[in-house]
Every structure is written in structure tokens, then in C-alpha cells.
Amino acid sequence: MIWFPKLYRVYRFQEYLLNPRWLTYGVYQLLYSELLKRQHGELHRGDVTELLKDKAIEDEHGNRLPYPEERLDFLVRAMAEFKLCYPALESPNDKWIVPDLLPSDQPERLAFPKEDALRFDFRFDTFLHRHVLSQFIVEHYRDIRDNQAWQHGVCLASRHWDDTLAMVQANYQSRVLSLAVAGPWVRDYFAVLYHSIGKILERMPKLRYVEQLRLDERARIGEEGIRPVDGREEEIPRESYRTLLALEAAGQKQLICEFGTYDLERLLRPLPKKKGNEPETTSTGGSNPPPSGSGLLDRSIATVSALGSVAGGLFTYLSLDDKVAGGVIGVFIGAVILAASAAWLWHRKRSKR
């Protein structure tokens, strides 16, 4: 049984989901429909009804899964809860956007001042998962500027800091997620977006990556060193964020590298300060003391649920012929199982108060 406390608080939903397969198969029918592909990820309320209402959908055991019209809204809200879609700002109750199915081409005339921006890269060792960017887009959909979102990127305009923009792009061939922020409130907006990406990556602990700061030419000292030619990506000067913070902690004033000599303070000036000047790591672990009593029980349940989610996702992946679809649905099943555990723990904490 699954209950969504957030959906209850926001939308006053009181339903309990007794069959997770009902949710999984319903989402599959929507995400992999030809209709949604033709509409480049735009899902209208009428589309949900057309694709699911009174359709004879069966699970892998041959059990019929009914989708009455009065339950379809719950299905879409659950998709948004799992960050598979977000409500369209112009019609939040009747239209949703699925980032994975957005147009693949970058919009024309983005008008983003890259040359004056703070530019930061997350460079992945072997694989950049497409869910990283799509989840980021869902989390920050309210800031999307003029619907400038596509499969490989998004342009944002902060609602809280005037005239401050950001652009996030994913290069799946070179396995780089880039974050650029420009405007008078660079440090504040960058801190929010950097933290958001970090939280997403914490949920994907097997993705190994390094963080790199692109070196601002305005911080260069002297004329020596390698300079980019025609803005070619592979020649853009950059340095490990961890290295820069270590140099700062050691009291160094300059960065000396193959690209030249740079004023370290000026390079790091736009970046948010971290406690002890220590960079965040890709690990989700910490130095917390071992739990005891009920805390140990809660963490044990969370661990078991995580293992269950992996097993459920793997089963789905191996049982479907379409491995790409199986991977997405496997992740979704894992999320459903984790949600069940989270709901149980939430109730447990409430009962202790």
C-alpha cells in the first residue's frame, strides 16, 4: 500500500494506492504513447482520458488494470511527484510537460551572456544519466524563461533575484553537465542551482564525476599559458573545484596551471563559501554517529526498502523487451517502493510526537 503525504497536503488527496502496478503501467502507457511523442512532451488532461479511460490494460500476470476517469488526476499528480513531468505555467491544472520528450533542438536566440557568466561543469567518468537534467528541469520549472527548455538544456530567469539568468546544458557525448549563471546575483542563484544538482546526484550514487570551474579570463595574470582557439570546447581553460578550494585553504593567492596564472581570489569570488573551504563530495555518507534504538530501526527499514527498489527495478528491466523502456520503468518502480517506505516512516515519526 502506498500513500502520498505531499499530494494529500497540497491537493487534499486521500487515496491509498493498493496496487503499485496500476501506477507503473498507467505511467508507461502515457510516457510511451505516440501521441505524447508527436506533441513533444505536452500532456493535456484530455490526452490522459483518451489514452487510459476504460482501456483494457493488463499487467505481466494478465490481471486487468482499470483506469476510471475519476482516478486519472491522481495518476498525473503522482507523475509530477516523481519528477517525470511538471505543470505548464499557463494551464497548471490541464497541461503538463514531460522533459524527456521535449524538442531536441535548442531554441533560437537564447540571448544568454555566456562570456560574462560564471561557468561550472560536472564532468562524469563514464555516463551522464538523462534523468539528471530532466529532474532538474522539473524542480525549477517555475523559473523557465519563455518556455526555453529542450531535451539537452534549459534557460532560467530567477524569480527571486532580478536580472539574473542561468543556463544548464547536458552534452551526453562528452558526458558533461554545464551550469552557467550571469547577472547581479550570481553567487546567490548559483548556490541554489548547485545545491539542487548536488541533491539530484546524491540519489544516483553510482554516477562518479568531478566538478570543474571554467577559468575567467578576467582573472588572468600576465600573457603566458594556453588560450582557447575559436572558443573550442576542449581548449577552454578549466580547473578542478576541489583543487581551487584546497589552494585557497592553504593560503595561496594564485593558481598556476598549463593555461597560465590566475588570481585565485577573483576566480572564487562569485562562488558561495563552504564551511571549512571543503568541497562537497559525490558520496552521500558522512561522519554521523551510529544510530541506536528506533533510529536504527528506521534506517534498517530504509535500507531494506532501497534494496527492494533495486530488485523491483531490475526485475522490470529484465522482463521487458525494450531495455530503454525497462530502465525507465525500473527506476519508476524503485521510486514507488521507496515512496511506500517514506510514507511508513513519516507516519511513524508523526505517531512519536
UniProtKB/TrEMBL annotation:
It comes from the Bacteria. Pfam families: COR-A, COR-B. The lineage of its organism: Bacteria, Pseudomonadati, Pseudomonadota, Gammaproteobacteria, Candidatus Kentrum. The keyword Repeat applies. InterPro entries: COR-A, COR-B. This is C-terminal of Roc, COR, domain. Keywords: Membrane, Repeat, Transmembrane, Transmembrane helix. Gene3D superfamilies: 1.10.10.2200, 3.30.310.200. Residues 14-102 form the COR domain. The chain crosses the membrane at residues 324-346. Residues 117-220 form the C-terminal of Roc COR-B domain. Residues 272-295 are annotated as: Disordered.
